[in-house]
Every structure is written in C-alpha cells, then in structure tokens.
Amino acid sequence: MEVKDINKIAVIGAGVIGNSWTANFIWKEYPVNLWLFTAEEENIAKQEIQEHLEGLAINGVFGKEKIPEMMKLINYTSSLETAVKDAQLIQESIIENLEIKQKLLADIDKFANPDAIFASSTSYLLISDIAKFSQYSKRCIGAHPYNPPHLIPLVEITIPEDDKGSIETAELAAEFYKTINKVPVILKKDVPGFIANQIQTAVSTICGELLANGVCTAEDIDKAMSFGPGLRWATMGPYLIYQLGGGKGGIKGLTLHIRGESEDLMSRKELETYANFIQGEVDKEMANRPPEFGNDNESLRKF
Ligand SMILES: NC(=O)c1ccc[n+]([C@@H]2O[C@H](COP(=O)([O-])OP(=O)(O)OC[C@H]3O[C@@H](n4cnc5c(N)ncnc54)[C@H](O)[C@@H]3O)[C@@H](O)[C@H]2O)c1
User: Fold this and answer.
1) Average pLDDT over every residue of 128-148
2) Taking the C-alpha atoms of 113, 37, 14 and 87 in order, what is their torsion angle to the nearest 10 degrees?
3) Which atom of ligand 1 is nearest to the CA of 103?
4) pLDDT tens-digit profile of 145-154?
5) 190 in helix, strand or coil?
6) From its phi and psi, is residue 95 left (phi > 0), alpha (psi between -120 and 50) or beta?
7) Cβ neighbours of residue 132 under 8 Å, at least 6 residues apart?
8) Whose CA is closest to atom 20 on ligand 1?
C-alpha cells in the first residue's frame, strides 16, 4: 500500500482523542467512519468535532462555510465491521486498557483488510502487548498523538518488537501523517510513554519535589516554565537550544565546558567521545532542517 491508497479512515472511539483525530482527518478531506462504543456518543461527538472545526475557522485556518461539507465526511456507526471493512487506516482511540484493546484488535482482525494499518493512540501501553495475539501484527503501530491531535502536530510511532512489527508500516504511516501536517517521529524501541510523555513525567516529578520541599508555589513553577524554558522549547528542542547556547563551539563546546568542570562524571576521554557523538547527532538534525528554520549556527540563531 502507498499513501495515495489511503482514502478512508476508521476512528475507533469517540472520546476526547477520537473526536479530535476525526476533526483533523475531515479537515484534511478524508472520509471517516467514526465507531461509537455507545450510540449515545453520536450527539456529543458531533458537537465536539463541530467545536474543534469552529476553533480552527475562527483562527483563520479555513472559512467557516467549509464546516458543513467537512462534517458530511463522517459516517457514525456502532458496527465495528462497518467502521473498518473499507478503511486503510484504523486509528484506535478507545479507553486505555490492555485487555480491551487486545480484544478490540482481535475483532478488527476479523473484519478489516489485512493491509489496513492499525494505529493505536495509546499513551503508555506497548504496541508489542496490544498486538501480541494479532495474526496481522506487522500492520500494527503505536501512533501516539499529543492532545489535542487536531492542533498539536506530534505523532510518536512505535512497532511491535521481536520481529513482529514492520518498519515499512511505520514509515508508510509517517508519510501519511505528514500529508495532514503532522510531525511524525519513529522510535527505535517500543517503550511506555514514548518520548514526550517520558519527558513530561520527568518534569512533573521535579515539579512535585519542588512543591513538596516548599521551594516555591505552583504559580511560581508555572511562571518559571512558561516565561523561561517553555518559550525556548516551543521553537526548539533541548539539543538545538544547547547548540545555540554553545555559540561558535556548538553543543560540543558547551558539553566540554560545562561537564568538564565535574571531573567525577566521566573521564576527559569519555567526555570528548560523548561531546563528539552529540555534536554529530545535532549536525545531522540541523542538516535535516529547512534553511528557513535554521540549518547552521547562524541561521538557527536568526530563527
Ligand atoms: N487524553 C489524552 O490526553 C490522550 C493523549 C494521547 C493519547 N491518549 C490515548 O487515547 C486513547 C483514548 O483516550 P481518551 O482521552 O480519548 O479517552 P476517553 O475516555 O475520552 O475516550 C475513550 C473512548 O473509549 C470508549 N470505551 C469505553 N469503554 C470501552 C470498551 N470497553 N470498549 C471500547 N470502547 C470503550 C469510550 O466510550 C470513549 O469513547 C487512550 O488510549 C489514551 O491513552 C489520550
């Protein structure tokens, strides 16, 4: 299958994430079969999706008059078979429970085309576990959006381990997500919490410690984050920020300078090896960036 063959999407689950994914897909003109766990969810789903689209229209992303046509692209159904049988991408977004997701996948295996990509929105479960009993595990990926998916571009992708997954499926899904303006990242390992939630958990842990130790108030923490690193991190990740922070010496210079002062951390030789490694990683990252986003020290600084 190629990206151009994806022309119908099944969104499974009409909760917070399912409705936001649906808004994202129909905004990009993809017809969606939205599977409802209970028929009563239909009205709430309609209302939430409509509100998501109105939010985009108010901010000038498209004209408000386009919304009725977009809403017509949704087929609401309580039948799993109807939802998945003609879909090439199945974006599972049901309750975060391993057994329930495994059972759902077993049912999807009965009805869906074996080529259809099964993409789980799970936040913390492993796709290796969700797909453990699937006869089509190679079509399965973790595809974790950041809430709300119709606004936040990131999608973190994982595949089942032990040769049960397929990197081609991950790459195909990543190419597809790019066509709807998402920014996909394919992880090399299947880990709980992917990248962003692990970082977020680490930040939450430190915030909790600062509060518990009476160092500052919750308001102080929020201010420190929003008016400090949060402003930088909105435009660049920590490694590019270090690259900038190191001036002409880049992240290598910064690493040798700062970490070189803590001799107990690693030997000078280990430090130099690490500094060269991390500079190489950042150089590769910069080379992948479009010039207007900054792909060398000077253009990065201007950006
Ligand atoms: N909320 C977030 O911030 C966030 C962010 C990224 C990913 N996710 C992931 O997205 C998925 C959905 O999360 P959500 O926040 O939309 O949850 P939600 O509670 O809003 O929606 C869950 C949906 O699952 C349905 N459901 C409940 N029991 C079910 C069952 N037994 N079988 C099938 N469906 C059932 C509910 O009716 C509901 O439509 C989860 O895997 C979650 O980890 C959530």
Assistant:
1) 97
2) 10
3) 32
4) 999 999 999 9
5) coil
6) beta
7) 102, 160
8) 15
DSSP string, the chain: --GGG---EEEE--SHHHHHHHHHHHHTT--EEEE-SSTTHHHHHHHHHHHHHHHHHHTTSS-GGGHHHHHTTEEEES-HHHHHTT-SEEEE---S-HHHHHHHHHHHHHHS-TTSEEEE--SSS-HHHHTTT-TTGGGEEEEEE-SSTTT--EEEEE--TTTTS-HHHHHHHHHHHHHTT-EEEE-SS--TTTTHHHHHHHHHHHHHHHHHTTSS-HHHHHHHHHTTHHHHHTTS-HHHHHHHHTGGGHHHHHHHHHHTT-TTTS-HHHHHHHHHHHHHHHHHHHHTS-GGG-SSHHHHHH-
Say how far residue 271 (Cα) sits from the centre of its chain: 32
Q: Is the CB of 44 under 6 A from ligand 1?
A: no
AA identity, residue 272: E
Question: Rounded to the nearest whole angstrom, what is the distance from the C-alpha of residue 94 to the centroid of ligand 1?
Answer: 4
Look at residue 260 and give its three-state secondary structure. coil
Task: Please determine, for residue 63, whether its predicted confidence score (pLDDT) is greater than 90.
Answer: yes
Q: Cα–Cα distance between 90 and 85 in angstroms, integer?
A: 10
In whole angstroms, what is the distance from residue 101 CA to residue 97 CA?
A: 6
Residues marked as catalytic: 156
Model confidence over 151-180: pLDDT tens digits?
Answer: 999 999 999 999 999 999 999 999 999 999
Contact (Cβ atoms closer than 8 angstroms) between residue 271 and residue 259: yes
CA-angle at 174, arms to 30 and 78, nearest 5°? 40
Mutate to test the pocket of ligand 1, among 20, 52, 94 (most ligand atoms within 8 A of CB): 94
Unique residue bearing structure tokens 């408000």: 64
